Amino acid sequence: MELKKLEVPTTSITEVKRSPMEVFDQAKQAGTAVYVFNREKVAGVMLTQTQYETLLQELDELRDGTSSEPPQKEEEYADTELDELYKLLQKSLMTGSSISAKVLDERMVSYGFITRKTGFGGVTDMINELKQSGKITYQSRQKSQGKNVIAEIMGKQEKSARLLDHIIIEKIYMK
User: Fold this and answer.
1) Does the pLDDT at position 80 exceed 70?
2) If 0-12 CB within 10 Å is exposed, 13-18 middle and 19+ buried, where does residue 41 land?
């Protein structure tokens, strides 16, 4: 079994004990959380204050339902595993909401899809695909009932965001 390399910065609990400020600097430079490992298992995640506050703000916006579009009707699937996954995606990637490409990719990976980020930065290819086709396509790591599961995140690049890696999710398809 091949181990998957994390696409995010990592450190050990020993390094955190030795110099926590270096880990915060690492999170700031990478623009993402740093996973802290203890004996080859994730013990926690470290964020800068700004990253944490941004996450809280996004969560509040999602809870307030500041989406300008009405909720989409969920489609039915014969495969209950696929149906549950679809509902999970609908819940965590709300239509009409804005999300950074990096966070989108991390969430999709956490739900069992293959990462779309490649190399340093990694989100450029995702944004380019979105501009060209209007969607970002993900493939699952495991098959469901002998078939590959494909998720298509339909949307557009958010132009008003500070960083140009934010996406407005319009619809989610699974096949």
Assistant:
1) no
2) exposed
